[in-house]
From TrEMBL:
Residues 270-481 form the Histidine kinase domain. PANTHER family: SENSOR HISTIDINE KINASE TRCS, SENSOR HISTIDINE KINASE YKOH. It is found in: Membrane. Its main location: membrane. GO terms for molecular function: phosphorelay sensor kinase activity. Pfam families: HATPase_c (PF02518), HisKA (PF00512). The chain crosses the membrane at residues 12-36. This is histidine kinase. Its EC number is 2.7.13.3. It comes from Sulfobacillus harzensis. The keyword Transcription regulation does not apply. GO terms for cellular component: plasma membrane. Keywords: Kinase, Membrane, Phosphoprotein, Transferase, Transmembrane, Transmembrane helix, Two-component regulatory system. It catalyses: ATP + protein L-histidine = ADP + protein N-phospho-L-histidine.
Length: 482
């Protein structure tokens, strides 16, 4: 596109700088032209006033007293004017023109205003004004003692009027304005060049950032923008840093999604195995009953096994649904006793404890009131104890402690199992992560459910493990107030 650069940030910055410069310089040019015209007009009036006073002193008294002929007066006027371009008119005290306009320039005079004649010839005051683009100055000619004698005061003999067209000062103002305009054009060009250099420096980090963003997601090693963090305005540097932080978060999430995908694939294989085995058993026993192969006690046994396998399938499906439900809704929160939660948990896990000949010891029993959903909180604690049961050796001991701290309640569950490998410890709360893939009884949702439940209760869960010695899981949540 021919003018595509105008749509870029650099082009728009250049245009904006040039536009502002043009507007400011145009305003300055207009103000300067008015200033030039006013200053030069005032200067012209001042020069005419000075010239008129010189003529009034050196020519006026002799001329109006009759001692200086017209031709001599004209010669004197030309000499006294020097290079000043003006017309000089001598007027009597009655307003009559005694000496027609004479001087170093010829132009169409506009005539002396009546107000000027009255002010100068009658009142003896100096007049300065502009009439029809012509500068007019009137100076009274007064007779001193040398003409009237020492007993007489000053008397007005007439007036000297000096006229000059303003086109003279206006021409000078126009010349100065043109020179200023030329300087401003040069300034605009310099502003454009500087604006281009500045905009290029400003847009270069953004171009680098755009290039990096365009390459995001196209490779495993995500590009970064280290150069932009030290270049350009502070906002661009902060944007680069935020992008790098976002890239780090994206990479972390992508890594977690990859791990979850791998764990999910393993879980699907595990679930498929768990589903296939009971379904095969159910189908085999039901076919035996259907075909009449299993009858009597054998038939009853086949039905019993099929029923147990059905319950096993139901437990697996319920666990998957429970993990989804807990994450999507928090349930109703009510004040509950911590002892009540632990007591119901111990009742639910007792059959499993007895089956493995494990001891469940409640060593520290400090009660506290918490705001919680009983079903979810019991489910979380059961999951923790259930994990301890799975990994504890037969005849081992599982210890529960309930502790009330300043503003929170803590439930600590410790086992004597083999512990959790150090590389797996940071990921134990992720979905589908299991400590040992060979254990088909684990689906990797237990601790994930625990973590979600504690988040909903504005609490948390911490886990500490020493390989070969055991694992301690600590649940904490704020105490109820009021």
């Amino acid at each position: 596109m021919r003018f595509g650069w105008l749509k870029r940030l650099s082009g728009q910055l250049v245009l904006s700088h040039v536009f502002v410069a043009v507007v400011v310089l145009a305003f300055a040019l207009g103000v300067a032209q008015l200033t030039f015209r006013h200053y030069l007009a005032v200067t012209q009036l001042t020069q005419l006033s000075e010239q008129g006073q010189v003529i009034a002193r050196n020519v006026g008294p002799q001329y109006f007293s009759g001692t200086m002929p017209d031709y001599v007066a004209k010669d004197y006027i030309h000499i006294l004017q020097g290079a000043l371009k003006a017309q000089v008119t001598l007027v009597s005290d009655t307003g009559q023109v005694e000496l027609p306009p004479t001087g170093n320039i010829q132009f169409q005079a506009v005539g002396i205003p009546e107000s000027a004649l009255a002010r100068v010839a009658e009142q003896g005051q100096v007049y300065r004004g502009i009439v029809d683009n012509v500068a007019i100055v009137g100076v009274p000619v007064k007779a001193g003692p040398s003409y009237l004698g020492p007993s007489y005061g000053p008397n007005i003999l007439g007036a000297v009027f000096v006229e000059s067209p303003l086109s003279i000062s206006q021409g000078t103002a126009n010349t100065l304005t043109r020179l200023l305009l030329l300087g401003e054009l040069v300034a605009v060009i310099m502003v454009g060049a500087l604006a281009y250099a500045i905009s290029w420096r400003l847009s270069r980090p953004l171009q680098e950032l755009r290039r990096v963003v365009a390459g995001t997601g196209r490779a495993d090693d995500a590009p970064r923008v280290p150069a932009a963090e030290d270049q350009g305005p502070l906002e661009v540097q902060e944007l680069a840093r935020e992008f790098n932080r976002l890239e780090d978060r994206i990479q972390a999430q992508v890594g977690q999604l990859k791990r979850e995908a791998e764990a999910r694939d393993a879980l699907l294989a595990h679930v498929a195995h768990d589903l296939r085995t009971p379904l095969t058993s159910i189908r085999g026993f039901l076919e035996a009953v259907k075909d009449g192969v299993a009858t009597g006690d054998a038939g009853d046994r086949a039905v019993q096994v099929a029923w147990e396998e059905t319950l096993r399938l139901q437990r697996l499906v319920n666990r998957l649904l429970r993990a989804t439900r807990i994450r999507s809704e928090s349930g109703t929160m009510v004040p509950l006793s911590l002892h009540q939660i632990v007591g119901k948990t111990m009742e639910r896990v007792k059959p499993v404890m007895d089956e493995k000949d494990l001891k469940l010891v409640w060593s520290t029993q400090e009660d506290a009131t918490v705001l919680a959903n009983e079903d979810y909180l019991v489910e979380a604690l059961v999951n923790v104890v259930d994990n301890a049961v799975k990994w504890s050796p037969e005849g081992g001991t599982i210890t529960i402690e309930t502790i009330r701290e300043t503003s929170r309640a803590v439930v600590r569950v410790s086992d004597q199992g083999p512990g959790i490998p150090e590389e797996l410890l940071p990921r134990v709360f992720e979905r589908f992560v299991t400590g040992d893939a060979s254990r088909q009884s684990s689906n990797g949702l237990g601790l994930f459910i625990v973590d979600e439940v504690m988040r909903h209760h504005r609490g948390g869960v911490d886990i500490h493990s020493t390989p070969g010695e055991g694992t301690t899981v600590e649940l904490w949540l704020p105490c109820a107030t009021g």
